[in-house]
Amino acid sequence: MHNIPFQAIDWTQIPKTTHPGDKGLAYWQTLQFDGLRIRIVEYSAGYIADHWCQKGHIVHCLKGDFISELESGEQFTLTEGMSYVVSDNLSSHRSLTTKGTTLLIVDGAFLGK
To answer: What InterPro entries would the database entry show (predicted)?
Structure first.
């Protein structure tokens, strides 16, 4: 990973991309650096991810609430101000929300095993 010089990020200037789930939509605003991805992700009401993710993340709930479901069946409800962290290939997980949520998600090579 390369050094990243100081920069202020105006998220209103970062375009949104649309990613359909099994149900609902996810809207991503993404900054990509070498070995580091930073996103603001909004899930619509009724969103259910379309896959089990093996990637590591640091996830912080900015608004609303969501469930992080593990493939084992465990579920963790995260509300505004809560976070979770997981390394690559440690827990298959997916997100779902009934009312919608906005998340800050950071992932990259530093979470690899």
So the answer is: DHCW_cupin (IPR047713), RmlC_Cupin_sf (IPR011051)
Domains located in the chain, CATH noted: 18-111 (2.60.120.10)
**With a threshold of 0.85, does the pTM exceed it?**
yes
For residues 43-74, one letter each, b for 16 or more C-beta atoms within 10 angstroms of the residue's C-beta and e for the rest, the string is: bbeebbbeeebeebbbbbbeebebebbeeeee
pLDDT tens digits for range 64-90? 999 999 999 999 999 999 999 988 788
Tokens for 79, please give them. Answer: 């509300």
- Residue 44 to residue 64: CA distance in whole angstroms: 11
For 77, the token pair is: 């409800």
